[in-house]
Amino acid sequence: MMNILHLRAISHELPAFVQALEARGIASRSVRDLCADDLRASQVLLIEAHIDQKALLGMKDGLMDCLNAGGTIVFNGHLVYPLIDGLEPFQVAAGRGRDDLVVERVHTHPVFEGVDCQDLSFRRGVAGFYARGANPPPADAQVLHRLKQDGSPIDWVWQRPEGGQVFMHSGNTMWMYLNDKSSAARIAPQLLDWVCASAPELTEEAH
Fold first, then answer.
1. pLDDT tens per residue, the chain (207 residues)?
2. ∠ Cα 150 190 131 (to 5°)
3. How many beta carbons lie within 10 A of that of residue 35, not counting itself?
4. Nearest Cα residue to 23 out of 194, 193, 206
């Protein structure tokens, strides 16, 4: 069993992603069925966009304990509540037109290997599915993608001085692209490869 916990925002999830989690031995549970101890006991937390942030705020000590122990939090969506110390709330991009929502890469990362920014900028010919603004990164975070027009940092990784890391995506849940017929379909499996590498399988002694 992988020491990774997927926090569901709703009672159902994209079937293909559930299968991918199950194949890797990753637990998937509704945030309403969790407590702070479940969060602090995990090495990696996968948090969907549209999660009940108010409910999660009540378990903030578990989130922080996970990070302080060297864990990884992957957060999708608009950060509204102060769930993680040092992070600021979501800021809407300056423009909302088609050209305002074009994505450009700033730094490479294994999660996005082989992913064309064109496939992030436009989904079925429509812009804005990927991100429409930013969860502002700390000064020492590494920005991976930004909106080309106004520079909003939409994907970034922060190695916290206190320990642990945050992988931030300020738009719709990244694994929504899993069944797309574009390079964006690579994100979900590559994300799972990346987090599994940092959370080795639990041994019997670890239970």
1. 569 999 998 766 778 998 999 999 999 999 989 999 999 999 999 999 999 999 999 999 999 999 999 999 999 999 999 999 999 999 999 988 888 999 999 999 999 999 999 999 999 878 889 999 999 999 999 999 999 999 999 999 999 999 999 999 999 999 999 999 999 999 999 999 999 997 755 433 333
2. 25
3. 11
4. 193
Cβ neighbours of residue 139 under 8 Å, at least 6 residues apart?
A: none
CB-CB contact of 202 with 1 (8 Å): yes
Kindly report the length of the chain: 207
∠50-65-55 over CA atoms, to 5°? 30
CA 173 – CA 191 distance, rounded (Å): 12
Q: Please, which contacts does 15-20 make with residues 24 or more away whose CB atoms are closer than 8 Å?
A: 16/178, 16/179, 17/175, 17/178, 17/188, 20/175, 20/178, 20/188, 20/189, 20/192
Longest dimension (CA), the chain: 54
